[in-house]
Design goal:
The protein has 2 domains: 204 residues; 56 residues. By secondary structure, it is α/β, with parallel strands linked by helices. The chain has a 6-stranded mixed β-sheet with strand order 1-4-5-6-8-7, with helices on both faces. It has a two-stranded antiparallel sheet with strand order 2-3. α1 crosses α7 and α2 crosses α3. The longest helix is centred in the C-terminal third of the chain and has 45 residues. The chain is 49% helix and 14% strand.
Length: 285
């Protein structure tokens, strides 16, 4: 193993994990989820800002997967909140752009609905839901700060389907100013970590507090170290698989050279193939 590929010691990994933790910002998934879970008032203020309407109270549930299928496949929502009117809010921090965001929002909505139905609810008891993506970059390339979607009739645009499902994509790098100053300030928080409003100051205070939060630091470092161990395991498996493929290719090369040769017993033994294997491949040539 070369010097560049030498595996880091557990102490080096711990030190790196601590450095990374101290660099976390509000837009990092781990910190975003922790702050929202710990401070539901900030989640409420953010939803009020996005929807431009008052919400009395929200309850934020811990980051738990929604699993519907028998094989345990499901989703893990970033921040799942409910208000006193049983409206559901799913807040997803999105620091990179993926072309499938639209279908992801559709899938999240479907899984949330299925989770409600499996508890014994009827169709007419499905709840109003907002799937909200907070994007660092423009997901649609039109320069808007907000892209809001609901199901409407194509032929009669003023007719809505009335399914009470909404998808909203925020764009922190938007260029239009057709939003409130408070929302523009929140976008500054997303981009720079700094802002001037009460919400911005709350977020900044929570980020500073998080850096001193020993339980969160320990959890993050544990996850970081586990991730590094899985990467190392993957590298080992990859190297082993590469060696196995190399051996197999070498044997195949020897075999290709023998296809037109006499099946000398000494050559057969050196090839690693059986006489029957060679005959089978000769007959398929």
């Amino acid at each position: 193993m070369s010097t560049k590929e030498q595996r880091k010691t557990p102490e080096q990994i711990r030190e790196e994990a601590e450095r990374q933790y101290l660099k976390l910002r509000f837009t990092d998934d781990f910190l975003f989820c922790k702050i929202m879970e710990d401070r539901p008032d900030i989640a409420r203020d953010l939803v009020e800002l996005i929807l431009n309407r008052k919400i009395s109270k929200v309850v934020v549930k811990k980051q738990e997967p929604i699993e519907i299928t028998s094989d345990g496949r499901g989703i893990r929502l970033d921040v799942y909140a409910e208000d006193e009117e049983n409206t559901i809010y799913d807040l997803e921090m999105q620091t990179t752009i993926h072309t499938e965001l639209g279908k992801r929002s559709r899938y999240y909505q479907g899984m949330i609905d299925l989770d409600i139905m499996k508890r014994g609810y009827k169709y007419d008891e499905l709840r109003k839901t907002y799937i909200i993506f907070l994007c660092m970059k423009d997901p649609f390339g039109r320069g808007k700060h907000i892209y809001s979607f609901e199901n409407r009739c194509i032929e009669e645009n003023e007719v809505t389907l009335g399914d009470e499902t909404y998808k909203i994509f925020l764009n922190a790098s938007g260029t239009d100013d057709a939003v409130s100053e408070n929302l523009l300030d929140f976008f500054r928080v997303m981009r720079t970590g700094e802002g001037n409003t009460d919400l911005a100051r709350k977020i900044q205070g929570e980020v500073d507090r998080a850096r001193r939060h020993e339980e969160w630091r320990t959890e993050y470092m544990t996850l970081f170290m586990r991730d590094q161990e899985m990467k190392e395991l993957g590298r080992k498996e990859g190297r082993a698989e590469g060696r196995a493929e190399g051996i197999e290719e070498g044997r195949a090369g020897i075999l290709r050279n023998m296809l037109n040769a006499e099946l000398d017993e000494e050559i057969i033994q050196k090839s690693g193939f059986t006489r029957d294997e060679i005959k089978q491949i000769q007959s398929e040539k």
